[in-house]
Design goal:
The protein has 371 residues and is of the alpha/beta class. The chain contains 19 helices and 12 strands. Helix 9 packs parallel to helix 10. The longest helix has 16 residues, at 130-145. The protein starts with a helix and ends with a strand.
Amino acid sequence: MVEEGAYWLAWTQISGIGPVLLRRLQQHFGTLATAWNATKVQLGEVEGFGFQTLEKVVQQRSRLHPEQLFTKHQQENSHFWTPADADYPRLLLETPSPPPILYYRGEVELQENLGQKPMVGIVGTRQPSEYGIRWTRQISTALAKNGFTVVSGMAEGIDTESHIAAMKAGGRTIAVLGTGVDVIYPHKNRDLYKQILTAGLVMSEYPTKTPPDRTHFPRRNRIIAGLSRAILVMEAPLKSGALITATYANEFGRDVYALPGRLDDHPSQGCLKLLSQGATFILKELDELLTMLGAIPQIDGIEASTAPEQLMPTLSPELQTVMDALASDALPFDFIIQQTGMAAGSVSGALLQLELMGLISQLPGMRYQKS
C-alpha cells in the first residue's frame, strides 16, 4: 500500500498545483490518495480547479507513479516531512498553505513540532542600525533563556543577529531558507549555518541543490510566520520582507510586535507602519514582552537594574504635561484631556510620541498608563 506522504509528493509534481490547492484537495477528499484516483468531474468540484488545471492533472497524473517517485526522492533528500507525517510542525499545519514537502537538517526537537515548546519569529532589515542590532541581541537572548526557540531566515542583518544571540544564550534556533537545506546563502553565513545545525534546524520547502531565487524568499516568510506563535519585527523599511512576514502572521492569527524607532529613521518606517496598524509595541521592559508571550517574567543578563529616573529623557512642555497627567494605573483618553486642558488632537499626538519613546503603554479601550 502506497503511503499518504507519497501522494503529497506526487501532487507537487503536477504544474499549477500549489500548497493552497493541495490543502483544498485534502479537505475535500479526506486524503490525497483518494484525490489522486478521483475522476475529472469529481476534481472539478474543488474550488480553484478550473478547466486548464484539470487538463494538466489528467495529462500529467497518468505518467507519475507515487511510490516510485517517493522512493527516488528519499534517496536524493534524506530528511523531509509531509503533512501526513506525525512529526510535521503542528502550527504550520494549521495555516492555509503548509508546504507539501518540508525539508530539514540539524537536531529535531519534537516538542517544537508538537507545539509544546513555543517558537517566536524575529525578522528585520539586512542593514540594521546599532539600535536595531542591540535590541535584537537583547530580545533574542531573553527569549532563549526563557525557553523560546528563535525562528528567522538566516539573512544578513537582523536574522543573523537573532540566530547568533539565541545560540550564545544556550537556546535553540531555526533558520528557514529560500534555498535547498544544503545550500548556504549568503555564503558569508557558512559558519553560522554549521552552528545552527548543532543547536537547532535549517528548514526549507525547496529540495536539495535548489539555488537562491528572488521569488523564493517572500514565500519562505510564510513558513517563518506559520511556525511561530508571534512575530517580532525589529527594524524594517517600508519595502521589506519583514513586512511580508508580518502580513502572513496577521493572516494566520499570530501576534505581531514591532520595535518603535524615531520618526525620521528610514529603517524604522516599516515598524512604525505596523504599529499604526495595531501591532504591539516592544518596550524596554522585556519582562512584559515575555509575560505576553507566555514566559516567566524574569530576565537574566538584561540591564533591568537601571533606575527609571536615569532613563527619563528631557521632554517638551507639551509632552511633560501629558506625562504628568498619567499614573501607574490606566486612565481613559477623555480623562487625560480633562486633566491636561489640551485639545484632543494634541493629546493624541503626544500620547503616540510618548508611546514610541517607550514611556507609556496603551491598553484596550483607549486607556493609557506609565510604563
